[in-house]
Design goal:
Elements (H helix, E strand, L loop, with lengths): L1 E7 L2 E7 L2 E5 L7 H14 L4 E4 L8 H8 L4 E4 L8 H8 L5 E5 L12 E8 L4 E7 L2
Parallel strand pairs: 2-8, 3-6, 3-7, 4-5, 5-6
Antiparallel strand pairs: 1-2, 7-8
Length: 136
């Protein structure tokens, strides 16, 4: 499990991730990209091999993702609905990547992956950001 409790840009962050493929379905502006940057920084500060992708990965091949994710413990796919497929998610998982987190709008991209669903809550009044597991 990855548990991050920190303050970043005056925002108190509480992020808890379980091993596996995780999906965040929250609306634009909910704090996903900000949270992903915090996770990426946490990995860097704790010597956890991590790779983060964004919209610039659009059009990349399965082989590109497999090569880029070898040896990583954490892989983050921001704006994943622009480029992700179940084959990419499963290919990365089969490399032994422990934590895979994707910001995605349609469950069709997750077919056959048995994802963990997360909720991202950014409270601008309280200056808090939370990512937590929803469901079973």
């Amino acid at each position: 499990m990855i548990s991050i409790n920190s303050v970043n840009k005056n925002v108190k962050c509480n992020i808890i991730l379980q091993e596996g493929i995780g999906a965040c379905f929250d609306l634009s502006g909910s704090g996903k990209t900000f949270a992903f940057k915090i996770i990426e920084n946490y990995c860097e500060q704790n010597d956890i091999p991590c790779r983060k992708f964004d919209y610039t990965a659009m059009g990349s091949s399965l082989e590109f993702f497999i090569t880029a994710c070898k040896g990583k413990d954490v892989v983050i796919f921001d704006n994943a609905d622009l480029y992700i497929t179940p084959e990419i998610l499963l290919g990365v998982k089969n490399l032994g990547v422990k934590y895979i987190l994707a910001s995605i709008k349609s469950r069709s991209y997750l077919k056959g992956t048995s994802p963990i669903y997360y909720r991202t809550v950014l409270d601008k009044t309280q200056k808090t950001l939370t990512i937590y597991k929803i469901g079973k």
